[in-house]
Every structure is written in structure tokens, then in C-alpha cells.
Amino acid sequence: MATTKNIQSIERAFSILELFQHSGCAEHSVKEISEALDLNKSTTFGLINTLTNLGYLQQNVENQKYALGLKLLSFSNTVKVQNIIIRAVHPYLEQINRKYGETVHCAVAQNDGVIYVDKVEATGSIYISTQIGTRNDLHCTGVGKCILAYLPPEDQERIYASNLKTMTYNTITNSEQLREEIRKVRQAGYAMDNEEISIGLTCVAVPVFSGPETVACAISVSGMTSRIRIAQENGLVNELKWIAASISKNAFDYDCSRDI
Amino acid sequence: MATTKNIQSIERAFSILELFQHSGCAEHSVKEISEALDLNKSTTFGLINTLTNLGYLQQNVENQKYALGLKLLSFSNTVKVQNIIIRAVHPYLEQINRKYGETVHCAVAQNDGVIYVDKVEATGSIYISTQIGTRNDLHCTGVGKCILAYLPPEDQERIYASNLKTMTYNTITNSEQLREEIRKVRQAGYAMDNEEISIGLTCVAVPVFSGPETVACAISVSGMTSRIRIAQENGLVNELKWIAASISKNAFDYDCSRDI
DNA sequence: TTTATATATTCTGCAATACAGAACAATTGT
DNA sequence: ACAATTGTTCTGTATTGCAGAATATATAAA
Lengths: 260, 260
Known about the structure:
DNA-binding; 2 domains; 19% strand; Beta-Lactamase; homodimer; 47% helix; Arc Repressor Mutant, subunit A; six-stranded antiparallel β-sheet; two-stranded antiparallel sheet; alpha+beta
């Protein structure tokens, strides 16, 4: 359990890198960064300078502004190769994609949200643009509901009480409704996203257990609503449940037949 | 120009993250890391603890060892979306892939090496496994030769004088031979990798200019030797040169017709 | 061209912080 | 049960990172 105080410069360094993710802007000046993070200008410069020397930022010589460095790309490669969940799940994602031809995602919990860690894209799909590493809220995604459903009660309550952001007119933004939805998810063993994050987009998601009441990740099939409806009629839900159980057994040595 | 001294903790934090890339091992203990980087145990713990709290490392509760955190994935997404080169080049990679059906890469220079920043994979290709973010040497890759050919003379000489690692029996490991090869690359306007990094694998690569003698990146087509030979007979080289010129013009506003 | 303004970068002394060593806790193996 | 190994916390101190000022550089205006 981590309790010691964080090292300031490291926190600051990463908050600079993260700023580029949240700001939506590819380039920032020293001044912008120092103001955004409320740091002294010369302090900011020292941090930026270090990150630049290490290759995690790069300076545009035209306007002197800084952008994220390409060296950051190398980590995603390593994570994909080394992460147990991604390695265990990927072949199954391929299998589902081959059978249904739709985009398949794998997501894990990440402080009150989900982060997509792997995907296999539908060929020619320009419709779904989720990039690996993206974060989404729990209440408006299929994978999020699967994860939320097996969180400890106190964590669930914190989510219910939080601001449930409206994404579409289908998003569940009412605490009581969400609580009821999650109850149904547990009972059914799978979760739907009925155009709750994007109109026209439907997902079917199932949890992958690594132990009793412990969800390692969730996998989902996403696509145009009409196409997913057809897949559902062709037994998509049961297929996903069966695959999730296989992953639990093969990758996490856990027999989750009683959880379903 | 960066001259100020780097902030120690940031350097150390990233050297921990980079250790996971080089070691090839997904999990490391505090002791292992502290020994590998020659840092005091408690110092190492402080660094690891901070990185863990920030989500860039995660602890395996089973054995207490640490692994790279999934939060690192999010950066690759942002870099891909924000990086000018990747955004400019990607559609052309798709175009080449559609026409020839082979794997297409884009790589940029990264301290005496190349780093692959984007790719479009041949469908069903399990043969080529280059992951985005991977680094390779300059002397044994098509993209590397393209970049090397337009480096300032002093940088070129440093490469020629360096240890030219043998990858296959075709790798050019002799300084004089490499110098001659690079001369030919400049003259021809493209570079080949004739099974110099992996037996059975051939690449054709061209430089993309952003200014006179300035290579922004290089793009390459890779595949089984026999298939690339066929593509070459179907005008692959000229097609690549033409596409590289289009990218230079459209993305970097540079007319490189005189360079070819 | 000169002047003014804004921002990037360097310099410097001080104080806070990150560090090393030791102590302690927890886990593993014998 | 004991020893050995390794993870985690504690603490004083020296180092390092920090803030403010000074300087350089770029941009805009006159």
C-alpha cells in the first residue's frame, strides 16, 4: 500500500505530459504550461527541458513551442507485449472479430472510469474511432457497467452519487436508474450500451472474472445499432459469455461458471 | 537549445520505466530495479511509489513486484492524434497498403536510430511483427538508410565509425561498404533492405523531405522477399517516390522534385 | 530601422526536498 | 521457530530543485 509522499518533480513532469492529453492542443509554450499548471516560469522550463532532453517532449523550432515526443510511443508497444491481460485476451478478441465482423474492445478499470487497453477493429469501420488508451466514464459504456457491477458497494455508491455526465439522450444520468441498471447487469451477466455514449452506436459487453466478484477486464462488441441487433439474434451474448469464461479459466485459472 | 542540467528525479523515474523496455521482463522487484540502476533501495522505492500512485507503474499484489501501468497506453493515442508527421503520412500509408497489400511503415530519426511511428499492416500478416514505437539501427533498415543518407556529414561519419551490429549474414557491417551503400541510396533516391535485418524479409524505403537535405521521415513497404520483388516489377519504387513527393508538398509545403 | 513588448532561457542564492542509511515490517524458506 | 530476504517507513542532512531576477531572443509596432 502506497502512503509515502510523491516526489514533486515527477508529479509535475507527468502533469505536463498529461496536459497535452487534456488540452487537446498539440503544442504549448512554456508560458502556457506554467500558467495552466500554476508553476513558476523557470521551474516549468526546467521540467520541460528535462523532458525534452529525454525525448518525451520535442520542441518545434519554428515557434519554440513544445509537443509530445515520439519516444512515448515506445511504451505502448512494451505495455502491449508485457501486460498479462492484453496478452491473454487478444486472441479471443480476434476470434470474436472474425465471427461477427464488428469492432471488439477490451477495457479495464482506471480510477472511476474505464481505459481501453486493446481492440480489434471491424474492417473498413470508420464509424468507431476509439483509440487504445482512451478513457471513458463507467455509467455510459457497456464495459463500464460490467466493471461497475462488481465494484465494492462503497465504490459503486460513490459513482452513483457522482455527476453522471450526459453524452446522448439515452445516457443514464439518474442515480436510481443507474443503480437499477447495474442490478440488472449483475443478474443478466452482461451489459448493453444502447446508444448511451454515441447515437447509432450499440455495444454488448461481458465481464471477465479473475476471482469471485473480481473483474479483471471487460470485453465488448461495438457497432451500428442495426448490425449489433442482428448479431444478438445470432447468439452474440451467449458466445461472449462463453468466451469470457474461457479467458477466466485459461488466463486466470478461475472457473466462473457459478458467477454466470 | 537545451543546456540546463536535467532534473535528477525525472531522469531516474524514466530510467525505471525504460528499464522494463530493455530488460524484456514484465515484472521487477524494488531490489532488482535499485540494483539495475545502481540506486539506493529507499530512493528507488520513493520513485517507484510515485510512479505507482500516478498510474505509470502497477504493483502485482501476488508477488509485490512492479509492472508498467496501463496509463502509459494513453500517451500513444494522444501522440498519434497530435503528431504532425503521423497525421500527414497515415492516409498515404493506407493508400500504399491498399495497392500492394503489404505492410507499410513510417519511421523517424531518433538518436542514431529509427523509431517506427506508424504502420498499416498487411492483412493476415503474422510475418512482420514490428510494433509502433520500436527502435532499430540505421544501417540495417531501409528507412534507416534513407535517414542516414541525408544526415549531416559529421553524424554520418559517427554512424560509419560505430559498431555496425550483425543482424543477418546480409547485414552491412563494414564502414566502407556502408558508406558506398549510402552514396548509392542518395543517387537512386530510395533504399533497399535485402534481408539485412531478418532473413526472408525485404523492404523498399523512400525519404520524405520537409526541406532541402532535410528528411522528416521515411516510409517503407516490407514483406516476404518474393512478394516485394513482384511489387518492384509493378513499379513500387516510382510509386513510393511519387507519394513521398506528394507528402512533402501537401504536408510540409516543400517541392522536392529537384531532390529526386 | 528603432523601440517596445512578450516570451524563452540562463543565473544565482536559499530553502525545501529528495536522498541515503538505518530501523522496522512482512514474507519466504528451512 | 528461526534466519534470511525484501518491501516499507523514519529521520537528519546535503543536495537539488526552486523562485525571482537578469538576460537573450523573437515578435510587433512605430
